[in-house]
Design brief:
45% of the residues lie in helices and 23% in strands. It has 247 residues and is of the alpha+beta class. The radius of gyration is 18 Å and the shape is globular.
Length: 247
């Protein structure tokens, strides 16, 4: 079980959404806000916003909250501006970690991220130190029930996808980021249901971990994700199933 969206999805299934709903809504709000700032307030013409809204709805963020964020972000330049920053480093056991943040205070965020790496046995590095180990991809999740993998693969490749993987309860279709919209439309036109749409950092190779090692890496990832300024955390750790069951 490699360390990008899959660990995140397991956490959601175990009720972390309910336990941390306020923080999750804050992260979703930032995604929506920044998408509006980049491409305008209309999801029909701003695919980043369309993706952000879909993800917010998937975790039951109220429609009124979404509307308020869009209105605030499109208010003639008023409102808060966030800088998007990426941090790279190593966790314990040689696991590479990428942290994506949205912040209105770069110094605060850098200090918080550095502190977690340092206190929990990791090492925050320079930009580029681990980024080459990952590919930026668009990710589509399709429920696996009743789906023939070979037929889905053909439909996905015909639509422009770069890969399809079987993750048990769902299939992941990977795309070039710029092709995510086109591939989604193609897969839906072929009759498949798309449960989630996102962008992710996919590790080219993974680091196998035992349960104890996985717990050590997870402490770093969890602590980073708990920071208000952090939007996403990715790693190339290969987490064993038993480590997932302990959470």
């Amino acid at each position: 079980m490699s360390g990008h969206s899959k660990w995140h999805n397991i956490r959601l299934k175990k009720g972390k959404v309910d336990a941390q709903r306020g923080k999750l809504f804050t992260k979703m709000s930032k995604d929506i806000y920044m998408a509006v700032r980049k491409g305008g307030p209309e999801p029909e013409t701003n695919f980043l916003l369309k993706v952000a809204i879909q993800r917010a709805r998937a975790v039951n963020m109220p429609a009124d909250n979404i509307k308020r964020v869009i209105e605030k972000a499109s208010g003639n330049g008023e409102g808060e501006n966030f800088d998007e920053i990426t941090y790279e480093g190593y966790g314990t056991h040689g696991v590479a970690i990428i942290v994506e943040a949205a912040t209105n205070n770069r110094n605060r965020t850098a200090a918080d991220v550095r502190s977690i790496f340092s206190k929990l046995g990791g090492n925050l590095g320079e930009n580029g130190c681990v980024g080459w180990m990952f590919d930026r991809r668009g990710v589509l999740q399709i429920p696996a029930e009743g789906v023939d993998e070979d037929e889905l693969m053909m439909a996905a490749l015909d639509a422009g996808a770069v890969d399809v993987s079987n993750e048990g309860e769902f299939f992941e279709v990977l795309t070039d980021p710029k092709d995510l919209h086109k591939v989604k439309d193609g897969i839906e036109a072929a009759g498949y249901k798309v449960d989630d749409v996102n962008f992710s950092q996919i590790p080219k190779n993974t680091v196998a971990l035992n349960a104890d090692q996985a717990a050590s890496v997870m402490r770093i990832i969890d602590s980073l994700e708990d920071l208000d300024d952090v939007q996403n955390v990715y790693s190339n750790g290969d987490f064993p199933e038993e480590a997932m069951d302990e959470d």
